[in-house]
Write a structure and sequence with these properties.
221 residues, 2 domains, alpha+beta, 9 strands, 19% strand, 5 helices, 4-stranded mixed beta sheet
């Protein structure tokens, strides 16, 4: 469902007798509250944890002698959130251009230790074997690359904001109603409507459990 369809469904679930909105702008104050509640619900859901649908991958060439990479430096032109940290199932890899089977893994270092060895000490360019992530969410490679190796790394998308009527949340569509139920809880509380709140909480809880099972992942640093 797009933003407008979600808004119309939320309007219906509030049991209001007025006509359903036909857009997401230029609305009455009461309907603007619905618009805002949906937008807030979507941002809150995205920020709750590291969801599967918000994981993305870049495969791009490094720049010789360059150690520090923002998302845009590796071809990520929109919605870059942060680099994925190493964990039990993932680490970024490098390979030689034209030889994709020549993969080797990079090991994550703590930022202070990384800077002590690879930034503050003078080292010549070589084959990167380590990485870290700095305070500005830039990827640091050590040593600096001596060649234009290719990096295959994952990152998390930044939360998407609903703005236009045709905007569609990029979570799996079968979970779109989660936003309606979450928004309805806020509306029901402000309208002092306990029956609506109870129904919204039950529906939200049931669907949220399914979302966690299907798309959930514990937050990582």
């Amino acid at each position: 469902m797009n933003y407008l369809a979600l808004l119309q469904r939320l309007h219906s679930e509030t049991l209001r007798s007025t006509a359903a909105p036909v857009g997401v702008t230029g609305l009455s104050d009461r309907n603007t509250r619905l618009v805002n509640a949906l937008a807030d619900a979507w941002l809150e859901v995205q920020s709750e944890r590291d969801w599967r649908w918000m994981r993305a991958t870049t495969d791009a060439a490094l720049t010789i002698d360059l150690q520090t990479y923002a998302g845009a430096d590796l071809g990520i032109v929109s919605r870059f959130g942060r680099w994925r940290a190493e964990d039990d199932t993932y680490c970024p890899t490098l390979y030689i251009n034209g030889a994709p089977n020549s993969l080797w893994q990079l090991t994550q270092w703590g930022l202070d230790d990384f800077r002590q060895l690879f930034i503050y000490r003078t080292q010549g360019s070589s084959t990167p074997v380590a990485f870290s992530i700095d305070e500005a969410d830039r990827l640091l490679l050590g040593p600096a690359p001596v060649a234009a190796y290719r990096l295959r790394a994952e990152y998390w998308l930044a939360p998407m904001t609903l703005v236009d009527a045709t905007d569609v949340p990029d979570m799996p569509e079968r979970f779109h109603m989660l936003l309606v139920w979450r928004a309805l809880m806020d509306i029901a509380r402000s309208d002092a409507a306990p029956e609506l709140l109870s129904r919204a909480e039950v529906s939200y809880g049931n669907l949220h459990d399914k979302l966690l099972f299907d798309q959930g992942r514990l937050p990582t640093t």
